Amino acid sequence: MRFKGLVACLFLVFSVAAEASSRWVSLNQCLDYLLIDWAPEQVVGITGLDETLINEKHRAHFGRLENILRLQPDRVFATEYNNPKLIRLLRQYTEVEVLPQPSSLARYDEWVTQLSQYAQLAPHARAHQQQLEQAIKQAQQVAQKVIILMPNQFSWGTASWADELISAMHWKNLAAPFGDNLVSLTLEEVIKLTPDRYLLEGFSRAHYALANEWLYHPLLQEHLEKTPTQQIPPRLSSCPVVFADDYLKAIQGKL
């Protein structure tokens, strides 16, 4: 029995060591952030979409097959929204892990489970899940009616990650009755909803942008001034699953 235990321990040690020396490449900007934070020594290639992440250790491949192969990766991390053709070609040369893009808490559990397959990522994945669960419990103490406003008169309806989080908090997403995922709202519909809190997501600072125009309508501005309004930072709104804990804090105005 002791011998078997020793063998198991040695196998685990060698597995961790092998993983720690492997070369990983990310095909998704959100995975760039996650992998650099959780396994910086393994990551050799990133998308290059955020120039601040590029350095001698983390090279940008810009989604080009030849650039990725030049990095000699042992494994490539992608999401289900990455180019299927690129993934098929890469699988001829290396291992490719395709992660789900969570739009529900059930799919989030799948996401955590897949990441937990890797010894370097497992403790981070579990901690991420625990932090999110704790943040949801804390938010449940004060239920509110909210609506997310985005450029071009969009909001998040049902079957979206934002709606899942809002529902898990026992808050009410006032855009849910308008449909699934991205829903389009008129100014009149927004005014009639009378939320306890407005959440602004994805707006640029360029007031002149047509996509932002409806935000500056005098009537909507009047309501925003009278009602608590939270701005969700672009970095969080672009990768709400990776930054789930901070995303929830932003919704609550605690960030």
UniProtKB/TrEMBL annotation:
Keywords: Signal. The keyword Signal applies. Gene3D superfamilies: Nitrogenase molybdenum iron protein domain (3.40.50.1980). Residues 1-20 form the signal peptide. This is Fe/B12 periplasmic-binding domain-containing protein. It comes from Idiomarina baltica OS145. The lineage of its organism: Bacteria, Pseudomonadati, Pseudomonadota, Gammaproteobacteria, Alteromonadales.
